[in-house]
User: Fold these one by one.
Assistant:
Number 1:
Amino acid sequence: MSGEELLLRRCKFVLVGDGWVLRDVNVVVRDGVIASVGEEVDKSGLVLDCSDKVVIPGLVNSHTHAAMTLLRGYCDDAELFGWLKRIWRVEARLTPRIVYLASKLAIYEMLSSGTTAFVDMYFYPEETAKAAEELGIRAALGPPIIEGVGELEGSVARAKSFVKDFGRSRLIVPILNVHSIHACSRETLEAVAELSRELEVKVHIHVSETRREVFECKKKYGLFPVEYLDRLGVLSDRCILVHLGWVTSWEIELIREKGACVVHCPSSNTKLATAGFFPFKEMVRSGIAVGLGTDGPASNNTLDMIREMRMAVLLQRNNYWDVDVNAADAFRAATLNGGAILGVRVGSVEEGYLADLALLDAYSVRLQPLRADNLLSAIVYSASGADVVATVVDGRLVYDREDEEKIARWREEVRRIAEELNKFMASIAGQ
Amino acid sequence: MSGEELLLRRCKFVLVGDGWVLRDVNVVVRDGVIASVGEEVDKSGLVLDCSDKVVIPGLVNSHTHAAMTLLRGYCDDAELFGWLKRIWRVEARLTPRIVYLASKLAIYEMLSSGTTAFVDMYFYPEETAKAAEELGIRAALGPPIIEGVGELEGSVARAKSFVKDFGRSRLIVPILNVHSIHACSRETLEAVAELSRELEVKVHIHVSETRREVFECKKKYGLFPVEYLDRLGVLSDRCILVHLGWVTSWEIELIREKGACVVHCPSSNTKLATAGFFPFKEMVRSGIAVGLGTDGPASNNTLDMIREMRMAVLLQRNNYWDVDVNAADAFRAATLNGGAILGVRVGSVEEGYLADLALLDAYSVRLQPLRADNLLSAIVYSASGADVVATVVDGRLVYDREDEEKIARWREEVRRIAEELNKFMASIAGQ
């Protein structure tokens, strides 16, 4: 692992942003920030020969539940509400240690597939934060704010102390995590709105994921979910709204007006058969920042953002019956828009951006024949997370496939973690 | 590369078929055939330690145009008919050498992602056959049968000579390749039907891929595409019908009656926005053998059958709004049903089946925590083609990631091929 000075030398290709390709340039990183992209050479820190590599901005997974690696493949064949029932039964038994281990497993998978930041919602976020800081990935995290009047005060206090504890971390972005309008009362949502204003942190919430949620919200409150959130004062430019498979056109207008961000999770929505139709084009045309998320590995079942970009385009083309949504849209969603969602300057390989980068093997068979003109296509449609050979977060080389010793250590730890998680799952089954 | 005697020793898991898992068993291969799966040990040939591996049946890509690796990322944002126009312009310039090189590239990608057989439709199939035999993959191939009366005799003669030349090959299955009802005349289709009966070989054809095809067929002949094929005598148990996104319920009944096989290509259909809805459930319930295909790498843009299995389930769940289609359906489509389509006994890790196998890394981070009860899920939803560490076709170890010398040679050849294909593309652009 390097310090925060880094030279990526003679990069075969740099995919600066969607469709903007440079060849044979150097990327100089100082203090964790991209200092130049071009001819400058600065060998004061670590030097990586990139003549056989493609450099892209690190990918931002804008919605996940990382520690749900624990539940990967545990319940694949249920729709959302039945699925949640089974999942919540296991989650009631979670311990901080299990969340720590399962988060580490997730972070190994993310770093090794080019993801440099993730927005997470799960129990014991301090455990996930610990794992993120240890392994060097960026993460937006916060305690789940739970239902019930007596409990609410405790939740608010926990959220405040989390913001205090992690507010100055270089890697952790504190946020407020609220499950959904169907799992939280009106009072809780109002308290969250107030807290978000007070602490100036973002609110991360599942919205309009299923038809049933929309139906029940309309029946109970006479409002659609986004309207309801707006009425309670939750909707603002600090909001990260996830799913929106059943959103209406006038709710899109509300989202735009208030400046909220949204996240599309195509694999999870299809796998859980939530149906609906995330209106990607309408969102983008309204100027809303659309991010991409894998959702938790129990409903995906991977954390591979490259696969998610491909899935996003393919699903949109299936649903719209046209080819308007393309590789550039998906790439922007997974990079620059992810930066907007995090509120951090990442998502482009340009001077002044934080040095969150992924390096891919330019000679991977899957990507051939590779050229500047089909590079973006190769990354979005043809690449696999496994083509990533190195990952840089905040200027530090946190994953390097060529570092055999470290890879062997990771592999051994992955093996130990998997064993412990399997033991935990067996103990649950026995109860 | 080994001979055809092989011992896979102490396999951590064997996924025999959909959902049937064995642990800690040996797989003995003799003369290219699986001789036993269990406790037997036979060290007369090559011995592979599989204590950290998962053994699955090799995957069958039931529809592709392998040499279209040449056109990967060349035209990503067009619907089928516009796309074909651009593609056909390049294809008019194809040479046997380019097809040979592009086929090799495709086969490297297929073998390294666990695909052991493919059904191909492309120009200069003898070049693809040569590449397949050199690299040791199984392939169903045949000359494209082209339009026009004068030409038809030549096409029939070429098809006959291809069947004669390759009929006895262990790896090549000769077939008749007919593009579609919209690109072939009635006379051509009738000639193909006759030839298929005479030579006892399968007919491989794109059908009901777009709404426009169905509309024009109905207008011209008063029949839906499958009805039309039936009327011309093409529809039989030697038929491989590809796409069927716009098939009707009574055409499904016809397909079942005649015993034809079908192939679903979910990535290609979504990427080209052909819309429609491949009725997977209705097909399977009718007892029709449904296979899976990537289609060509210009409309996918990979040849990764693991990704295709995942895509199949996800797309079906999106379209049906329920979770009925599951991992087992996709796995069967990519293995046993692929065997039925090829007409070759592959697709299961059982005594008597041909030894076409893929070995995956049981400790890949993406698959953890792995257990017997989530193994099928891990393969279909979580794995990537890159988790394949070795591939066996016809009992021969044709890909082995641990064989560093051979991998370096492959890598060097991939690089050379990519360069030559890029030069060819540049020469086309200049004309």
Number 2:
Amino acid sequence: MGKKKIGIIGATGYTGSELVRILTNHPEVEISLITSESRAGELFSDVHPFLQGIADQKLVSVDRIDEFELDLVFLALPHGISMDFVKRFKDKNFKIIDLSGDFRLSSSEVYEEWYQIDHLYPEGIKQAVFGSPELFYDDIKNARLIANPGCFPTSAILGLAPLLSAKLIETEPIIIDSKTGVTGAGIKAKTVNLYSNVNDNFKAYGLKNHRHTIEIQGISDRIAGQNTLIQFTPHLLPVDRGILTTIYARPTGETDEISLRKEYEKFYANAPFVRLRKQAPAIKDVRGTNYCDLFVTYDARTNMVIVISVIDNLIKGAAGQAVQNMNIMFGLDETSGLNLIPLNP
Amino acid sequence: MGKKKIGIIGATGYTGSELVRILTNHPEVEISLITSESRAGELFSDVHPFLQGIADQKLVSVDRIDEFELDLVFLALPHGISMDFVKRFKDKNFKIIDLSGDFRLSSSEVYEEWYQIDHLYPEGIKQAVFGSPELFYDDIKNARLIANPGCFPTSAILGLAPLLSAKLIETEPIIIDSKTGVTGAGIKAKTVNLYSNVNDNFKAYGLKNHRHTIEIQGISDRIAGQNTLIQFTPHLLPVDRGILTTIYARPTGETDEISLRKEYEKFYANAPFVRLRKQAPAIKDVRGTNYCDLFVTYDARTNMVIVISVIDNLIKGAAGQAVQNMNIMFGLDETSGLNLIPLNP
Amino acid sequence: MGKKKIGIIGATGYTGSELVRILTNHPEVEISLITSESRAGELFSDVHPFLQGIADQKLVSVDRIDEFELDLVFLALPHGISMDFVKRFKDKNFKIIDLSGDFRLSSSEVYEEWYQIDHLYPEGIKQAVFGSPELFYDDIKNARLIANPGCFPTSAILGLAPLLSAKLIETEPIIIDSKTGVTGAGIKAKTVNLYSNVNDNFKAYGLKNHRHTIEIQGISDRIAGQNTLIQFTPHLLPVDRGILTTIYARPTGETDEISLRKEYEKFYANAPFVRLRKQAPAIKDVRGTNYCDLFVTYDARTNMVIVISVIDNLIKGAAGQAVQNMNIMFGLDETSGLNLIPLNP
Amino acid sequence: MGKKKIGIIGATGYTGSELVRILTNHPEVEISLITSESRAGELFSDVHPFLQGIADQKLVSVDRIDEFELDLVFLALPHGISMDFVKRFKDKNFKIIDLSGDFRLSSSEVYEEWYQIDHLYPEGIKQAVFGSPELFYDDIKNARLIANPGCFPTSAILGLAPLLSAKLIETEPIIIDSKTGVTGAGIKAKTVNLYSNVNDNFKAYGLKNHRHTIEIQGISDRIAGQNTLIQFTPHLLPVDRGILTTIYARPTGETDEISLRKEYEKFYANAPFVRLRKQAPAIKDVRGTNYCDLFVTYDARTNMVIVISVIDNLIKGAAGQAVQNMNIMFGLDETSGLNLIPLNP
């Protein structure tokens, strides 16, 4: 059996370049197609010169997709654009992993409220499986369309899931204070990611209404089997990659650190990319990898549970988790092509 | 009337160099003495070469302090050492501003529990005034010994005070998630402030037991007139200077953003260094200055109050606030010598 | 005699905000006018929120300039635009300091060759005085139009001048390897100053044809009284501010370190902003100030002279040097308003 | 035939952790032994927590080395210490790759002059092969002891070799202006690599007498077949990894850019890790990889050749080049285990 044939729709962003970086060394797939409308005809390494000699594929327009036999397509596109392509590809034979936010929420109504644009393909929301392998492995295995989780939701949900699943914490509200690297804002030059606005600086943004709030809350509801209320505040770190999320919640009953840790060990016993840490982890501990490092503790003085969660937003928070989903969909080893080791320092 | 004569005890740290930086341009004081035991005989600018031509005073041993007529002495020393000097200076004619943590807590018992060392001068704790000018202006005016507030407590307490004072929030617990620049860890080379451990990195530390927890809680108790329970988590930012504190609390009754803002405007009507902002501030907005920028908001969806507070940890969080206290003790304009403008970018 | 009245043309860039930062605390001038076409009607602190409460002047269109009585105008505009305003203001009563590159070169022909645009006001080139106070103090005193030096040229020329003036080095070629902070590229978001393209990165740019090459060479020719040939290579540092320039040249005769240092001391005996250092300086040693720190040495093994020069590109390389020129033009103390102390760390 | 068995002497530094990072995914070798005297008994991942679950080998004292059958040993030790072990291992059956500077120079006399310590094993200098695969492939193949090149020399020599080999440049002097990341200073906390001394900062160091000067000059002499005189100035960048070297030299005769590029293409036709670039490369283009990216140009105006060279100092400048040498010594494909892709951003 030959290698699986992969298409990547959207080449110019970080998600695209990370997918190529990971898939280039993947032993069981090959990249057959990379599309770009703005840079068609150029090489992928013209767009990302650090990949010269590594990824010199010619970019083509998505209009030529039928010339390629594809087993699976990654959509590395902005939200709002992505749903249009999912709709357009609805009768194709390939599987789809959408890295945008277009199919992650519970309904088109919720989407329209938080994204403030119309949803073009509500049918897709019903079909899509939320691609969090640690939570929905079996659904992913049989899915045709994956809504790959957002970066903040990945860090928050993996930190919360054992607590919610075992009903160990009160759920209204849960405080989620997240700090992200700049690549979360994308590759386009904007005031927000101008070097001198970020360097030696730090700020909160998107207070009260960041779109990932509802994504976290929606999945938390499902895991908990009850309503949750998520207070989510993102902050912008002067680093390229990485998210650290600090979670605060009230325990529902008596608890202590040891029993909490056991709960996490049990919950993630079969999760190759979750590392339970004995100390609070740092974002560089997972840089360049698909790991989510977790630390849970309990403060008896205040009766609060605190969880620290770190990921690389471009990998476990985007391209790496997408490849993990692909592996599961193809029946491959979940870790295939993802034996990445942290670049530290 | 001539200029006031100032002594600085401890020259090698950041607190010392910041005091000199600020006092050098202060129109109403002069630095008569800078002490150092390890570098006595050298120039201040030998220790801090960027001050060549600006602060070339010769360093002398503290043993020679009686040779100088001093109006006020700043102690720029580590905790544990500082209390020894306060004791030693107890019968001197000069006023004292102690920048360490030795006299900030409510009793020697509390100190010994959180600092894990014996307190050598409990009498000093009783005499000391907590040097937060926005809260205790009148006490500062008449004080002989000031316990200059810690950096995290300054950012947290200024953010909380209007809420606590007007009993607008529930006080058990209050979530205080702080992020600080590296200079908070001091000037000595350690693993924690090694460049490659900090750069492009981010982590939490001191969970549950950081000493500033009890300092914040002690002052919060006083302002609120009731018990508070502070959940304080510091994190280490890859920046030199600056603290951003994000505060989460439940309102005690009905509230909204406009009324909260009015409360802050009223509370800080006479505070020249508190700036109320219309947007969430960034740490570079106050870099190099004595400002504390505050932003308060209310999330109706979750029924939570959120406050963002930023300061320069070395200035409003240390040397600048100390000079502000000095101005008040001398009956000078509170802002004298402190008309610093943010260095941004 | 009242304070001098100042206008600043162009408010949105770093040069504008630095001028305001410096002039706000200047004891002998006042800012009467700040213009902006794109933001007219807003406050200066709306454009630069860190200046809230410090610089809340209302921005007006330059078309209203005649409503103001002005003693001097700073042009904080891009090259190509600036010359148009110099021409337009040619019969006004106020003096002009132009911070762009439009009037720094020896002729409109040279300008057009290196800037690749037509020069609209060649007459201005003849009138303009190159605003390097350490070299042309007397000319500046009597000038009506100052061409404020470029940032790289300032660092290079101050490093070279004593050598060229005393004919101590061979002049064809002189190697000038410069490294600059990102603010040199301006405040507009571009790919080149996108955070993730700069952070943890470093690169050369503008090899062989950077415009500052000819500015350095033109002034070097004048100081040396003979032809020079400048090999200039700028590099982009992951820092906000600062230029470090490393200069390599062959001595014309026998030399040694001591005699070279004496030459520098003599040359800069009356220069309050040049600090001769005993060790190689770092850019943070001058951050936020108008200093140029210099270090000169001689390598007997290779028979080469090496000079290290550091400045803050936004201050001594732009706004600070402009204010220094203004002081000289007004007959004030050269250092008035410029007693800035390095922000370090 | 089984996997080759590898020992790593010295576990606590960056060189040790990088070797482990690379060798863990190498298909044809296995790590049999990692030694540490200070941390014996602990796990490798206790020393480097980011490798938890990836490299959990127990550290043992080097005294137990005879318990292990080893094919090759890497010495990841400081200079001065390393030569002692080479001497101690002189009759062992395993090959040795020494990553220190102890065996890179032409004689013990030269070593003692530049390193200012006695050489304990001059015999080793005679046996050692300088491990630059692009230059000495055949010697490496048959070597028992490799002196792995220094980081600066790797970047400089790869940039210069085609010019020197074809006698295209004058050799007295050659200007080599290098800029390095902080990891070059090692993992121990020192004033020089304290975060706040490096961040937002930049400086030159080691002017005229850095030890890599003579290493570069010694190899340059060999390649050129004549005396060279190297003017080498290192500078410290606020980045973790990466070296960019800018080289200036006079051509010996007429030249132009096209013919220079052809010379480089010919010289590196069989070098899998040298990438010739059409634009000046940036250090992040090679971060995390064994690549050396080169750009050569000619300035007709000044008659100078300019070369830009970038490497990751910890990989091509240390551990990666060491593994490349190991591959050659074992007769493996030179690139085995080294298919690393740049982490960018």
